[in-house]
Amino acid sequence: MKVILHLLILSCFFNVALYGQNETNITYGLKLGGLFSKISNLPESIKGRDNTFDNSVMESKGAYGLEGGFFLNCKLYDTRVAIQPEILFRQSGETVNYHDATGKEFELGLHYSYLQIGALYKVYPYEGLNLGFGAFYGISLSSNNVTYKSNEAGGMYDVATRQFYKDGLDGTDDFSLCFALGYELHQSIHFDLRYYLGVKDVVKSNSSSFQFIENQNKSSVICFSLGYSFHQW
To answer: Which helix (H) or strand (E) element contains residue 135?
Structure first.
């Protein structure tokens, strides 16, 4: 099913490009931006069934990352509408902080990378101002990139504990809806603010790790990016 979905997205990408040669005005370019991401319900999944976490506090803090890649903007002939397929690289994830009454503290970070493939349907109500809606499928490139830092015994057990989380939690592919607000200047410079709403569980807990509870851990990402088009409409 996953392979079929990837092929359908790629087929849509190239079909739009071929159709656009005769029926649209085409621009293409590169974009790069910064983002802030979160993964829902992560503290609840990590606390699991371990009673030693009683009277403790675990908070989600989010994580910062980058997103960038290639876009192809196909403005439909004699309209204020465009289709914009994209292939992007994204770094996102989550950081959680823990502390309890005994003074123990640690920070756990899940830092995932994805190859994002998708497209936006964009409407231009006024000049370069545009509103967009679309969907992106994120192919996981780093399912076990985990960081762990604690104050326990001066960090003596951090390596072993990090491996415990690496073995117990796996990052999976992501699928998200995208809502965008942007502005395109005549000099080919684009500004873009986006919100990605994840609709798929992106963290899988392995059965061998009895502590964790399988939960719906969905991503949410806010991204601001700057793009440049090499051809103008």
So the answer is: strand 129-140
* 3-class SS of residue 10: helix
Nearest CA to 129 among 199, 83, 180, 68?
180
Bridge partners of residue 87, in order along the sequence: 70, 117
Q: Which of 31, 33, 17, 21 is nearest to 83 (CA)?
A: 17
Share of the chain above pLDDT 70, in %: 84
b/e map 149-186, b = 16+ CB within 10 Å: ebeeeeeeebeebbeebeebbebebbbbebebebebee
Predicted TM-score of the model (pTM): 0.84
Looking at residue 195, its pLDDT comes to 98
